Amino acid sequence: MTADLRKLPTGFGRLWTAQTVSSLGDGVTHAALPLLALTLTRDPLALAVVTAAGTLPWLLFGVLGGALVDRWDRRRTMWVADAARAALLAIPAAAAALDVLSIPLLAAVAFFLGVGGLFFDTAATAYLPDLLGRDPALLERANSRLRGAQTAMSGFAGPPAGSALLTLGRAVPLVADAVSFAVSALLVRSLPAAPRPVPQARESLLRQARAGASYVFRDRVLLGLALRPAVGNIAFLAVETVLALFAHDRLGIGAFGFGLLLTAEATGGLLGAAIASFLGRRLGTGAALTFTAAVEGLAILGLAAAPNPYAAGLALAVCGAAMGATMVLAPSLRQTIVPAHLMGRVASTSRMLAMCAAPFGAFLGGWLATAYDVRTPLYTAAGLLLTMTAVTATMTSNRRVEAALRAAAPASETRDPVQEPAL
């Protein structure tokens, strides 16, 4: 039986359900947390502190977190992280109910939610290849379903639900997110146990973290996979920083129309996640990644030149589709070719590079719009994306990808998928 015809194991259904429920809660909090902060202050700097606090864990110790995940049991790491986030949200929920909520408390909550997210996301990325026996086709199917559910829940259902729940009381969306984390923790705890990571020689945590980072920088395929989201975040944050202003000043779009623009991008993301495996089969994974990267750059170029809201919405939908496909193909390839004992560190290194690049994009977008014109950040972002595509095309070519897959094949062929425990 070919890999394409094999069914995903039962355990994946529980993992998918856990991440879907958790993504819905994330979407609720994503909308509710800034709105809660807005009820406390109108100071833009204070609001920015709450937003930035959630990204700090990746910037401060993303690679160290990956090294810890490579030492720990991945399933236990996931459910403990979600259980801790559920308990953490009880604090601001109680503070909101008692009318003692504050900006420092919200910033602290955002920071520790980010810590939990760092450990959960890294452990989940490392656990999935074990669950699926490192099968490339199964990993693409699984990541497609996970990405689609995440987009639907955190991009479509969660934010309006968070806004609606906030009207019922300031504590309500926080309680809802806490429940989502608790449900996720229970589901993850019921997953089959994965093989424990191979114990490393007596090395310090810092040395192990450095080994994981150097593994990424020495491997041209992995470096290419890491550079794309890093440069992409600079470009996309430059666009995001001025998108509302561009939509209002150049396209004549109000608040409702701006929401529709964002919905168009999310809709494209769902489509891209669904067709990612098809693109990989038709073009080869390396060529498909180059194709989607080029489409992202051209779509942003189309957005910059858009004469009306309809053209802008189409450009964002196309960009979202390319991003959705990339976010299925790239992680699936990484999960297939990276040794199990390094998976946490490699995943966290790549994520940290992307997170570190994001603030530069926000600054770049604001500066270019101030110094030149509101369209300038969009044209610059398109140029960055297309340049990055040209630079990384040879790094992740079909030839290099196929060589990496052949090198990883002996390890994956001796590795069966994680089995459910006997009852």
From TrEMBL:
The keyword ATP-binding does not apply. It is a multi-pass membrane protein. InterPro entries: MFS_dom, MFS_trans_sf, TM_effector. Keywords: Cell membrane, Membrane, Transmembrane, Transmembrane helix, Transport. One of its GO terms (molecular function) is transmembrane transporter activity. The chain crosses the membrane at residues 45-67, 225-247, 253-279, 286-304, 310-331, 352-372, 378-396. It is found in: Cell membrane. GO terms for cellular component: plasma membrane. This is MFS family permease. Pfam families: MFS_3. It comes from Streptomyces nymphaeiformis. It comes from the Bacteria. Residues 1-400 form the Major facilitator superfamily (MFS) profile domain. PANTHER family: INTEGRAL MEMBRANE EFFLUX PROTEIN-RELATED (PTHR23513), MAJOR FACILITATOR SUPERFAMILY ASSOCIATED DOMAIN-CONTAINING PROTEIN (PTHR23513:SF6).
